[in-house]
Design a protein that fits this description.
Blueprint (H helix, E strand, L loop, with lengths): L1 H27 L27 H4 L27 H4 L16 E4 L9 E2 L4 E6 L7 E7 L5 E6 L10 E7 L4 E6 L7 E4 L5 E9 L9 E8 L1 E4 L9 E2 L5 E7 L5 E8 L3 E8 L9 E6 L6 E5 L8 E5 L4 E9 L6 E11 L5 E9 L2 E7 L6 E4 L2 E8 L3 E5 L7 E6 L4 E2 L3 E2 L2
Parallel strand pairs: 1-3, 2-4, 11-13, 12-14
Antiparallel strand pairs: 3-10, 4-9, 5-8, 5-10, 6-7, 6-9, 13-20, 14-19, 15-18, 15-20, 16-17, 16-19, 21-22, 22-25, 23-24, 23-26, 24-25, 26-27, 26-28
């Protein structure tokens, strides 16, 4: 009997040791990287501007300039000016207009005339669709630049099938000093890169090199912050480490089930802006993107479309440390190339959430500051209209579980708070 009892004790001890070893091993591994499949989300298509019809080579030309032929080679018949000094290059100043969407990114927008004497205010990153409407027309755009963060201004004109514009782009400061100027030709579009030494407002301008204009003088002007980075496979199970933000990542979702992950380190309280360009450039990818904590596996935010089928979101970062951005194909139904810009800006004017509690099975209460009458409570990245607003408190009717992630977005531009977990 004593021998059987001893054997039983040894067996129990051995099993306990095995379970402990397994638990410790599991704890030592990072949570698996993933994108929550939010297939229940509505797919209300909301593209405002048209999508271009570029192939991968044309869309990626700024990181792979070899093969300079345009996407649709053609001979342009024009008589150039002898000095090729456009009205744009002779301009020395344009008054500026600030934008209210500094912390959200501008996304895909149309130019707003008149913008030849007063620059149209835009927020980065941005794709501006415009036209040099008549001979001698110029378009100006003002934006806030941050010290040490490279600005890239890229014109799309020679690459557009229905445009005869030969782009001339210029960068000014608010004193009218020309910082840089680049000119394209019939096959190659111009590009400006500039890193400011201080926070300042800059002005980008675009015109035709020969001062021509008209219905076949369309362009898209892409303005972003950060260095350019190529995707490095494999990055589907472990994240590719980024040198720092801001960056523009040039990558591909090679198959319907492919996912790409990118990790970076940031400080709590900054606003992260993530903007994916795929459909807008002609890619067949219908992207989805998220932000997660690689240590806990918590998904802080998810978005599958904002500018048409392209994803974009902003979020105040909740802690200092490492984060992971994931990108894939919505519902695993597409593939294609993408350009993903991730940048950090101050969180000034963003709402702040201090607590989210579950009042009942279908009601949560969110406390914080910076809320407005149009504030929306988001549970698991899905917006819910606010039913009551009292002294910095929002209540929303929504089924929520303990541990669900809650954020608050303010109208009209969806400026978003930090994420918190439902208690």
């Amino acid at each position: 009997m004593r021998m059987q009892s001893l054997k039983r004790s040894v067996a129990v001890t051995t099993l306990a040791l095995l379970l402990t070893t397994t638990f410790v091993a599991a704890q030592s591994e990072e949570p698996a990287l993933r994108i929550g499949r939010h297939t229940q989300q509505s797919k209300d298509y909301n593209r405002i501007v048209p999508a271009l019809t570029l192939d991968r080579a044309a869309a990626f030309r700024r990181v792979n300039p070899s093969g300079a032929a345009s996407a649709s080679p053609r001979e342009r018949r024009r008589t150039p000016l002898t000095d090729r000094a456009t009205a744009l290059s002779r301009t020395r100043q344009a008054a500026t207009v600030e934008t209210n969407s500094f912390g959200t990114g501008g996304g895909d927008i149309f130019e707003a005339e008149p913008n030849d004497r007063i620059a149209q205010g835009v927020s980065l990153p941005v794709n501006i669709f415009g036209r040099i409407s008549f001979d001698g027309d110029v378009d100006f755009f003002s934006f806030r630049a941050l010290a040490g963060q490279q600005i890239t201004i890229e014109a799309f004109a020679a690459r557009l099938r229905n445009s005869d514009l030969i782009a001339d782009i210029v960068l000014f400061d608010t004193d009218g000093r020309m910082i840089d100027r680049e000119v394209g030709d019939e096959d190659v579009d111009p590009l400006i890169r500039y890193t400011p030494f201080r926070d300042e407002v800059l002005i980008a301008g675009i015109a035709d090199i020969d001062d021509f204009g008209g219905p076949r003088s369309d362009y898209m002007l892409n303005i972003t912050r950060g260095d350019d980075v190529d995707e490095e496979e494999p990055n589907d199970r472990s994240a590719q480490r980024l040198p720092g933000l801001p960056v523009t990542i040039f990558g591909d979702i090679d198959g319907r089930t492919d996912v790409d992950f990118y990790s970076f380190v940031a400080v709590a309280g900054q606003t992260l802006i993530v903007d994916v360009d795929a459909e807008v450039l002609g890619s067949r990818l219908d992207p989805e993107v998220n932000l997660s904590d690689p240590e806990t596996g918590v998904e802080y935010f998810y978005n599958d479309q904002y500018d048409g089928d392209d994803s974009r979101f902003n979020l105040v970062l909740p802690h200092t440390g490492r984060y992971v951005i994931g990108i894939g194909a919505f519902d695993s139904n597409s593939s294609g190339f993408y350009r993903l810009n991730a940048s950090l800006v101050p969180a000034v004017a963003a709402p702040f959430v201090s607590r989210a509690i579950r009042l009942s099975r279908k009601t949560i209460e969110v406390s914080g500051s910076g809320f407005g009458s149009g504030s929306v409570v988001e549970v698991r990245s899905r917006g819910r209209s606010t039913s009551i607003t009292i002294f910095g408190t929002l209540r929303a009717k929504v089924k929520a579980r303990i541990g669900d992630v809650v954020t608050v977005a303010n109208a009209p531009d969806d400026r978003r708070s930090n994420p918190v977990l439902v208690q």
